[in-house]
Amino acid sequence: MLYYGERVKLCKFIKKMYDRKLTNAAGGNVSIKVSDDHFIMSPTLMSQNYLCDLNPEQILVIDKEENIIDGYGGITREINMHMAAYEENAKINCVIHAHALNSMVFASMGLDMPNISEGTQKMGEIKCLEFAPATTPELAEKVRKEVKQDQAISKSYLLRKHGVLVVGATLEKTYDMLERLEWNAYIAKEYLIFKQLGITGIDDLVEYDYNTEE
Questions:
Q1: What is the pTM (predicted TM-score) of this model?
Q2: pLDDT 10s digits, 68-121
Q3: What is the largest distance, in Å, between two alpha-carbon atoms of the chain?
Q4: 3-state SS of the chain: helix, strand, coil percent to 5?
Q5: Neighbouring residues of 74: CB distance < 8 A, sequence distance ≥ 6
Q6: What is the Cα–Cα distance from 43 to 36, expressed in whole angstroms?
């Protein structure tokens, strides 16, 4: 089996996403660039049909032309978003699209997410992109534009009415950023409630030089 170890590891992380409410039965997909020619990727309906409990044979190996080289199942229609990210930033080796519980609040409302936690400072602005229907070329092009413009690694975007997109250098780092984003989303929700109530903290670290490399 091609890329057996990588496919086993991807199954583990995908299951963890579902168990930790980082995505839901409505969808989500993950891909990894494993060579200059090949990517591995979750199949379509991984959440709805399998509740993200996949086996390595279900992880697809695809080429740059989106042909299936190995694995069984269909290619998600959201592959265009993934390929747009890879094509515009050579440093990206993993793309995760998910429907994380707290982050979906900001995505659904079309709000940029306040970047409050120390662990998310490397993300910079957590922007909510303008609406485009899921799976469409229009949404892929909005992602392409942002990735091309930013050229950052460990970056997260909110997809209006749809979910989140996280890009990174490895599966581990990208999943880590997804978890950090979701914790920040919970904190940001509480922060906005406190702010509405007139309760404020002492923000004396505005100029602090956070570590944004690790």
A1: 0.93
A2: 999 999 999 999 999 999 999 999 999 999 999 999 999 999 999 999 998 998
A3: 59
A4: 40, 20, 45
A5: 43, 44, 45
A6: 21
